[in-house]
Amino acid sequence: MTKETPEQLREIGQAYFGLLVRPFRDKYEENWDEESFWKAVEQFKIKVRELGYEDPRQALTVYGGLSFGDLRDNLRKGPPKCFRKGWKSEMLGESVDITFALRQCSHLHGPEFTGNESIVVLDLWATWCGACIKAAPEISELAEEYVGQVSFVGIVNDGVHEDKEHDVQKVKECLESNREGFKFANFIDDRNYIQENIFKKSGYSGVPCYIIIANRVVMYVGSGREGFKEALKAAVEGTIMV
Q1: Measured distance between the N- and C-terminal CA atoms of the chain, rounded to whole angstroms
Q2: Angle CA(73)–CA(21)–CA(50) in degrees, nearest 5?
Q3: pLDDT at position 146, please?
Q4: Which residues does the UniProt record annotate as the domain Thioredoxin (predicted)?
Q5: Which of these, 215, 201, 197, lies nearest to 89 by C-alpha position?
Q6: Are 108 and 187 in contact (CB under 8 A)?
């Protein structure tokens, strides 16, 4: 088959996610339905043949080239525990000296961290993470809403999932080009202190990762979607949700 057209790619994506991925995302481990998955594979094969593929396996190259068996194994295994409903970090309730931790980082952008606020929100992100940059304006809005009550601190580490040298200039350029979104303090974790002593211990493996620390106690770890604003409000109101 020649190079796919945008319309073909769209239809392949609809078939791949609609038939093979979305129906099985929540059916991992003991909830796995082997028969239904392989029926879905046959439906997918029919669909991609209609799109011009003689060998339906070729269509899988668009999404990383996994075989049907590999895809089945990944779906059956399920997502990391931190991305499952009801997950809670083992760090909840633990004490963290955030002032000491930030001394191990280098300040790059925004206000200095004073430690005057008893509540700190860490925004752990990376320059290659589009979702992190997209979420920054909302964090800036929260920083304005809770000014004087909560300190919002961005911690950037492009090696969050692999060992990389820290490119300070690249981070500065990213912050500058997105300065309207990042209106809060930002540090680079150039000694990997927060990476090793907070992020990895939190058990959360994605970015952005938000950590709420109230009176040095960790009270929230997660993506910012599930319960983040509620936990932040509870911290401000003096209620610890762990």
Answers
A1: 54
A2: 110
A3: 96
A4: 49-237
A5: 201
A6: yes
Identify the CA nearest to 121 among candidates 146, 104, 100, 103.
146
Strands (E), the chain: 106-109, 119-125, 150-156, 185-188, 209-214, 217-222
Domain boundaries, the chain: 6-78, 98-236
What is the pTM assigned to this prediction? 0.81
* Model pLDDT for residues 10-41, shown as the tens digit of each residue: 999 999 999 999 999 999 999 999 999 999 99
**Could you give the percent of the chain with pLDDT greater than 70?**
97
State the average pLDDT over residues 56-66. 84
CA 232 – CA 150 distance, rounded (Å): 9
Banded pLDDT at 226 (limits 50, 70, 90):
confident
Report helix, strand or coil for 196: helix
Question: Any idea which residue has 């964090």 for tokens?
Answer: 139
- Are 59 and 43 within 8 A, CB to CB? no
- State yes or no: pLDDT of 130 exceeds 90: yes
d(CA 100, CA 102): 6
CATH topology of domain 98-236: Glutaredoxin (3.40.30)
Structural tokens at position 242: 């762990």
Strand partners, 214: 119, 217
